[in-house]
Amino acid sequence: MSDIIETWFDQPLLFTIAERHVRGRLVRLGPTLQTIMGAHNYPPVAEKLLAEALVLTVLLGSTLKDENGQMTLQAQTGGGPIELLVCDYRGGELRGYLKFDAERLAEVGSDPTLFALFGEGFLAITFDQATTAERYQGIVPLEGASIGEAAEHYFEQSEQIPSLIKLAARHDPEAGCLAGGLLLQHLPEGEVGRDRLHVRHDNTEWEHAKTIAATLKDEELTDPATSLETLAWRLFHEDEVRVEPGIGVSRGCRCSPGYFAGVLAQFPEAERADMADENGRIVVDCAFCSRFFPIPLDEISAHNRAE
Q1: Are 11 and 245 contacting, i.e. CB atoms less than 8 angstroms apart?
Q2: Around Cβ 60, how many Cβ atoms within 10 Å?
Q3: What is the distance between the alpha carbons of residues 74 and 272, in angstroms, rounded to a whole number?
Q4: What is the pTM of this model?
């Protein structure tokens, strides 16, 4: 491994093992995660679920080749206490939100299954490429022991890329919520026209790398005293591992009075009048950052005139 500044929090580490045709991402969220969680008062089960979903969002978002592209993770629930889960990533900006039935969530225990949380739910993963305006979406059942396993099914079915995803989250009494994750993928060998790996039988390289990566412990992913480079070295010290830092992550809620005025300006004037309160304002609730934005009707009209 080459000598670089070590990576600790809120920045993915990208790595490749060329001889095994493997690429990976490691990330640990700390201050950014605490900022996102600080806008809400989530119970422990909900906090852990959202923290792992945010880590997964960074891992997947860091695979975007288009720096202005966006990756969105959304759970479509089917009768469970979790009513809505949505996270997105764009250029290092991360946000996420969880809506739930508090009474029903309290009944599922401290270590619930995905079915207990979501019922017959589905996970939608969407990649929007800003440069080409292309959109790729895969929808898979929310099955398995974790939301990470559901995402593995996405890569297997939609991308036909063997993948391993490990996610971990915990609440530290002093530091607050900490979470980390690993994404490991075995890719085609680069030759155009080569068979996809799922139809080949010479996957010993992948099986070896996956077996080693599976030994990574939750405690290591969330350990603030261990750099991500150290984790990669512990796992793959027998191979040549090339590493590079990814884009730094920060909370990226895009709410602002100007943004909401632009959205509301798309509604007919009569509908805007019906939405307004007695003071002539439309109050917009941003679920991501738990803030209210009163937008005066005259500001919306001014936005239309400016257009």
Answers
A1: yes
A2: 23
A3: 29
A4: 0.85
Q: Which residue has the tokens 């250029």?
A: 91
Question: Cα–Cα distance between 275 and 129 in angstroms, integer?
Answer: 34
String of DSSP letters for the chain: --------SSS-EEEEEGGGTEEEEEEEESHHHHHHHHTS---HHHHHHHHHHHHHHHHHHTT-SSTT-EEEEEEE-BBSSEEEEEEEEETTEEEEEEEE-HHHHHTS-SS--HHHHHBS-EEEEEEEETTTTEEEEEEEE--SSSHHHHHHHHIIIII---EEEEEEEEEETTTEEEEEEEEEEE---S-TTPPPGGG-S--HHHHHHHHHHTT--HHHHT-TTS-HHHHHHHHHTTS--EEEE----EE-----HHHHHHHHTTS-HHHHHHH--TTSEEEEEETTTTEEEEEEHHHHHHHHHH-
As a whole number of angstroms, the distance between CA 133 and CA 136 comes to: 10
Residue 226 CA: distances (Å) to CA of 76, 218, 296: 35, 12, 50
Least confident of 45-54, 111-120, 188-197, 247-256: 188-197
Tokens of 110: 């401290």
Q: Give 52-62 pLDDT, tens digit per residue.
A: 999 999 999 99
**What are the backbone dihedrals phi and psi of residue 43, each rounded to the nearest 5 degrees, phi first?**
-70, 165
Angle at alpha carbon of residue 65, lines to 188 and 244, rounded to 5°: 80
**Token match 């906090």: residue?**
47
Dump pLDDT digits (tens) for 142-151: 988 889 999 9
